[in-house]
Every structure is written in C-alpha cells, then in structure tokens.
Amino acid sequence: MKFISANNGLRLLFYSSMLASFPCTALARAHASPFGVAYFQQNISGTISDSSGPLPGVTVMIKGTTRSAISDNEGKFSIVASPGEILVFSFLGYRTVEVAVGSQMVLSVTLVEDVTQLDEVEINAGYYSVRQKESTGSISRITAKDIETQPVTNPLAAMQGRMAGVDISQATGTPGGNFNIKIRGINSLRGTANEPLYIIDGVPYASQSLGNGDAINGVLPALTSPLNAINPSDIENIEVLKDADATAIYGSRGANGVVLITTKKGKAGTTKFSFQASTTAGTVVQKMNVLNTEQYLQMRKEGFANDGITEYPADAYDVNGTWSQNRYTNWQKELLGGTSYVRNLQGSVSGGAERTQFMIGGTYRNETTVTPDTGAYSKGAVHTSITHTSADDRFKLNFSANYSSERNTLPGTDLSKSAYTLAPNAPALYDNNGDLNWENGTFENPLAYLKSSYRSDSETLFANALLSYQLKYGFEVRTSLGYNESSLTEYKTFPSSMYNPALGVDASAAQIFNNDGMRHSWIVEPQLNWKTNLNKLSINALAGTTFLSQLQQVSANYGMGFASDALIHNIAAASMVIQLTDEATAYKYNAIYSRLNFNYDGKYIINATGRRDGSSRFGPGNRFANFWALGGAWLFHKEALFDRQNVISYGKIRTSYGTTGSDQIGDYQYLNTYAVSPYQYGGITGLQPSRLFNPNFGWETNKKWEIALELGLFNDRILWNTSYFRNRSSNQLVGLTLPGTTGFSSVQSNLGATVENEGWEIGCTSQNVKTTVFSWTTSLNLTVPRNRLVAFPGLESSTYSNTFVIGKPVNVQKLYEYTGIDQQTGTYTFRDYNNDGQITLADRQATNDPNPKFFGGFSNTLSYKNWNLDFLFQFVKQKAANELLYFSSPGTFSNQPVSVLDHYPSGNNIQQYTSGNNPSATTAQSLYTQSNAIIEDASFIRLKTIMISYNVPTDWLKGLQAKIYLQGQNLFTITPYSGPDPETQSLIYLPPLRQLTLGIQVGL
C-alpha cells in the first residue's frame, strides 16, 4: 500500500508541511509548563457571577471526571483539583466556561448569557461565510460530530438521512462502490448530467470516474466513486447549497447543487495529538427465501411435464440423476455468508501559537468482503494544514493539502445472483483434493472467478492556498489557488483456467482489460471584498473572477490470445490487441462573479449575486452566459410586536429566485470530430467522422424559486424550518436522433423540453433536556419531492416517445399493464392498448415513478455524564420492482423465490411452470418482468447508524483523554419489500452490510 507518491512535488509538499510545523510546535511548547503535569492536589475556590451579580447553583466539574461542586447563594465555590486539570463551569442559559488549574488558588469567574444557537453558527456559503440566522439561501449542514458516529469510507455515506432535499442511496455493499446523489431532484434529461458540484477547501473536485466500464463489469454496478479518496475523519463540515440564492454565484456549475467540504484545521494552544483505532465486522443483513431441494425438483419436473417432455434432456443435470437428488446447499450462506473486516487506524498532531497553527493527520483503512475471496480494499491518506496571521492581523494564509492512495483487489465478479439462482442440489464447490469442482464438466462453478483477477490503483492529491490582505476603508483582497490531480490504473483478467474444462478452452481465449486514466486541474480565483456600516445599514460586497483549466487523458485496451495464462498481464504477448479508448480532452472555464448584501438593522436583508460564465464546451457564439439570483429575508422576531413574549425567540421569512445553468455535456461536442477507423484501405489506417458540427447549441438553464419560514421557540430550544421550492430546467441539452442514412445516430442540440422539480422540505431540532449532567437532542428532516416533465415539443413523433411522458417524472418507467393469467393457456396476459392483436412497445402505457414519495431521517443524541448515545433512523417511501425481475421462468434450470409456489393452476400469482421449451410461456415471462405486476412497495425504515461511547475520566489516565465506542451500521430494516434490500433493489450486486465497530480514541 502506497501512502506517499514518488512524485517529487508531493514529497516537497509533505516535507515542507513537516518543517513548517516544527517552529509552531516549539512555540507552543514554550507556553507550556516546564515542569509538565503535576499530580498533587490543592483547594481551588472563588466566586462565580454574571452581569447582575453572584450566581448560585452553578456546577463546577473537573473535566473528564465525576468530581464536582455547586456554587452557594453568594456564588462561592470550593473544589480540590490538581494543576493541569480543567475546571468546567456550566449553568443553564449561560455559556460554559473552562479554566485550566494553575498556580492561582482563588478564581473569579464571570458567566455570560448563552446567545441562541443560530447566533453562534457560521456557515460556509462558498465564496463567503454568513451567520445562519442571517442567511437568505437554503443551506444544509453536518459537522464532524455527525460524521464521526459512522464507520464509513465515503463522505456521501455520512450524509445519508441527515439533510432535507438531499437524496442519497448506496449502489452496492462492495467496498469502494458508488453512491447516487440527487439534490432536489433530476434536472437534466441526460442521466450523466445531474451530479452536483463538489468543492473541497475551495478546490473543485471532479465527480466523474476515470474507470472503464469493461474493466469493472461484474464487480460494481457503477464506476468507482472518486469521493472515496476523501477521508471522512478529516472533514470538519459539509454544507450543501440548494436554492438559487446559494448556488447562482457558482453559475453553470451550481445547477444541480453544490457540496462544500471543509477539512479540519489546527487550533492555537499546546500541541495535541489524537490516535484512533477501530475494527469492524460486517455481514449480509437479510437473506431471501428460495426453494429447497424438494420444492425445486418438484418445480423442475412439473415444468418438463407442462412442456410435454417425459425424458429429461442430457443437460438437465439437476433432475436427470447426474446430480444427487438429496443434496441441499444454502448457497446464500456459502457464497455471501462470510464476514467482512475493516481495520482502521488514524492519527493527527495539531497545535500552534496565536499567529500560526498547524495540523498533520494520517489514516490507513483495510476492508475485506463477505465472499470467499482474499482480496481487499485499502486506503491510505495524509492531511495537512497550516494557518498563519500576521502580527498586525492584516495578512492571513490558509494552506491545506490532502493526498490519498487506494487499492482495490476485491473479487472480479459479484456472486449475489449466483447465491439466489444456483440449484439447491448443485455439487460441492471443491473436490476431495481441495481443487475447484467441475463435476465432470456438468457444473459451472461460481468460484471460477477466483482464477480471474481485478485490481485498481488510484492516487488523488488536492491542495489549496488562500491568501488575504486587509486594506483600508473595509477593503480586503483575497486569492484562492487550487490544484487537483487524480490517477487510476486498473485491469481485469479472464484466464483460460476460469472456464469449465469440458469447454476445452485454452490460453488462446484468455483476455485482459487494461485502463489508465489521469486528470489534473488548477484554479485561480482572485477576489475583492468590501464591508462598511452606515448607521443601521451594513453592506457587504465582493467581486471576483475564476480561471480553471482541466486536462484528462484516458487509455483503455483489450488483449486476447496468449501462449499461456502466465503471460496474461503482459498485453504485448496477446495475439490480438484492440485499443478501446485513447483520448486526451481539455476543458477551460472562466467566470466573473459578484455579490452585494444589504442588512438593515439586523432585520431586513437583501442578497444579490451574479455570474458570467464562459465554457470551452460550446461553440464560439455561445460560450458565455449570465446567471443571477436575488434573495431576501425578514427577521420578524426583532420587531417590537415580539418584544413582550417569550415563545418565539427567532423568526425569519426568506425567499429567493434566480437562474443557474449547466455545461455538463462533455468536451468537443460542438465540433465535427474524427476517430481512427477500425478498417484499413491498402494496409493503411484512416480516419472516419465521429460527430457532426453544431456550434449553435447553448447552455441549459435552471430557474429556481423558493420561499421558507424558519422559527426558534423557547430560546431556540426548538428550531423549525419549512421551505417550498420549484425549479424548472429548460433548453435541455440532448442528442437529437438522426436518420440512419446520415451515418450518425444523433447530433448534440438544445430541446425545448422543460423539467420541473418542486417539493417541501421540513427540518426540526429540539433540545429536549439540558442539565449539567444530562442532555437530549432530537433532529428530524423530511422531504416531499415531485419531478415531472412539463413540456417536450414533438414528443409523440420523436424517438423519445417510448422514454418520456408529459406530466410524469423524467426517469419514469414505462411498463406493460398486467391483466392476470389466462386460465386456458396458463400464461400471463397483458393489455393490448392499440388492439392490434399483439403486445409491442406501443402497449407500454402503464407507468411507475421510481422516485421517493418522501424521505428523511430521525436522529437523537443523548449524553449522561461520560456516556453518549447517538442514533439515526433513515426512512423512504417508494415503489420498486421486486425480486422476480431478476429470475428466469419458473421451471427452468434456476432456483426461484418461494413465492413461485403460488402458481397456476392451483394459484393465481405465477403462471404455469416451463422448462424453457414453451415459447409462449417464456415470452410471457419476459413481458411480465417489464410490467406493473412486479412493482411493489419498497418503503423502509432503517436504523442507519448508532453509536455508544464512553469518555474515560482523565484522572484515570493522568491527563490523557480517551474514548471507547461501539458503532452499528444498518443494524435492522423494517420493510414490506420482498427482495434482499429495498435501497439497492437488486439481486445482482451485494446489498449494504450490517456492520459493528469497536474502537478507541486517545488524545492529549
């Protein structure tokens, strides 16, 4: 496993960070006691007061211990403590104060009233920050405290169920797999153009994978998520920008929302270290009930009988006596019943003086899977940051860098479908000699994949330097400099040894897929800020520009035919080599942007943003477009009307309207490009046209509107917000289908189609109990979304007529309408809409909306003395295809779910069995899997995560801070869904695993 690249630039970065931290460490040590921590105890006394006088009843506790005292009626207290220990002064309604015990024996402590939670929270809005109560935009936020409760490797996993309007689902339980994310729905008709913009410490991070579909085929349902490269434990905050007011300043890049990731920084004070180690065990959550041997054989025999076959074919090994009729294997247990293990180690050192702070952290993670395989997914990461402020507080520097290295050697094939469909009387996996068992050529051993191999190696580096200088008259100049580099190398092999020996396959049929990708980009963003106050009016303004350049290179090839399997990794030894991809693409982007914010008397706020974007992905006449937004907020709780009541402590009505855009169409789409021809003329390779010229298409446009009400009740003990949004995306960029006589399948163009997303978002946080020893906080978020195609001129006459439906979601599933089982033939029947006597694509008139009707999360945080409990329930209301989608006709050489027992003629749910020799039955089965008959309720409530932790008293460890924790992930799911998992809704790929984690964290 590589932690540090051999790249000289990266080495220089790492060693520079180390050297920079030494003077910070030395300076911090200079402020520490030269005698270390003393362990003799002394009596500390004093008086506690507020602005009105002495405070009785204040709790004085020694941090990390159970020793405490209470101030008397005169605010006086007395407690025994040792130098180096920390006294914690806490009282309901006041800010907690911590005081380190030193040589001073008598203390005078003043507590100040606790301002509301929203007054304290400052959120990142991208190019600027704003106090949450004064924000005019829709921004959701989670912190490191939320992230650390989950044993996840991808930041998107940490966001699941915690943010209104953010729909995230896991694609597979295989380590390194992808996540699907939608922020307020689907905006584009192109499925690949709905990804949000990711910004990590000011650096845009491309979410498109460098992987190759041929290489990962059978391993993952989608290309590996690049966000796996980001270590969740290095993240301080994640903010998601959703509405026009929040996203318009990012212009075309903010059409689908913006995810801002801020990593941790060092803090002034004595040098601190933190070390954490954990072990996780994971298993498949839910098995599916399939037929046992007796039921399976009865089904098979009935299928042959229905087809009029009395003598079983020679290849019907399961019923013709070739295989044992009494053998039974639980293949789900055999193939998916293992335990995956995750070993995670991470540590950090941070500290610094008042002017300069630093942090250096590192992580190593190794994860296996539940299948009988020795592969693993492993990741190493290094995170470093340095912040510095000049003595006159005018100049500030903030530098951060993150490097990660990943390796994935997990199985080249997902065994999930085999676990459900293998005949229960199939032979053993291994013979008496411990070799793979082929049962004399009659058994396609599912462990044949062990002979093949898959491996991917990736490295990611992103770095950012933010420099600012405070000028006179409220002006500040800032410059953000960012760099990002990603590389990926992967291969997948198919040696001859993985095939059934009965097929007689030799090394001439061995194959390998190779893929190499590299992407690097840089961004420079100068910015000028201005702040001023004119009596009750505060004005904030900024203006900036963006210069971004990205270069991507991908090369993939395929080799077949080797003299020996031993040479399969050397593609030069292949008798046939095909270059699948060899391309380099450049993307350049330039923008100017501005923001003007007016805040009058802290009650009336107007926020205007504008951006002009230029993209190299459009023709010369359409490269530039303008985007803007206007947001307003009224903090009505500050009006005189609310002065004499103590219920509403905070109230705000906000609204926004504006436009964003999209250029997510790929590079060079407007050009008439050429590709290398696969054919030769006279032994010479030529070129052939690959794309038609069309410089006239332009930007997609997304118009966003929102109105929201935010409330704080009972001194913000209850925080409530409700928002309604409506987004309309038009001028859709799609490929217009062309007649085959043109030689091209499509040409890139704009359609007048309009897609609408609207919905309600509700969020509530309540501080149920808050005492000196016990606290309990509850949070709830709920999203009720709706997606529909509003307009599509000429849809019925276009090639998209069988894909889209006006008034339905853009990802609507068009299905046949199931009408029951024909009692004469025993096969499924379907409605013939056009009455032409046959079932064709024109009869797919029934529809299903695969989008959630609503989704959200419900979390609680409880703390009692040194104990903490956090848990999160995720819930989704939805419909999806059930497990029958993935099975062949009941009666064929494949196991089936037990639901097929309710079959014709005794039952009414499943048609008559067939061995596969009844064309009417097999055709009806194919139509059945494309009909509304298999759509069922796939809603679920899942205990997504739970964490119990105990903070070890510091007096037990002589000043050290330690925490022991137990975490659970996906512990149980309540669902009516009949398949293995309602989230992935698939039998082909591994579902999310149930995981238990035991860990310890030690720090100073």
Structural description of this entry:
There is one protein chain. This protein is mostly beta strands and 1004 residues long. Among the domains are: 33-110, Carboxypeptidase-like, regulatory domain (Immunoglobulin-like), CATH 2.60.40; 813-848 and 882-937, no CATH class. Helices cover 8% and strands 46% of the residues. The chain contains ten helices and 50 strands. The strands form eleven sheets. It has a 22-stranded antiparallel β-barrel. Strands 11-16-17-14-15 form a five-stranded mixed sheet. The radius of gyration is 32 Å and the shape is globular. Mean pLDDT is 88; it is low at 1-39.
What is the averaged pLDDT score? 88
Q: Helicity range of the residues?
A: under 10%
Number of separate helices: 10
- Number of extended strands: 50
Backbone shape = globular
**Intertermini distance:** 29 Å
The proportion of strand residues reads over 45%
Task: Supply the helix-strand structural class.
Answer: mainly beta
List low-confidence stretches: 1-39
Q: What gyration radius follows from the Cα positions, in whole Å?
A: 32 Å
Largest sheet: 22 strands, antiparallel, barrel
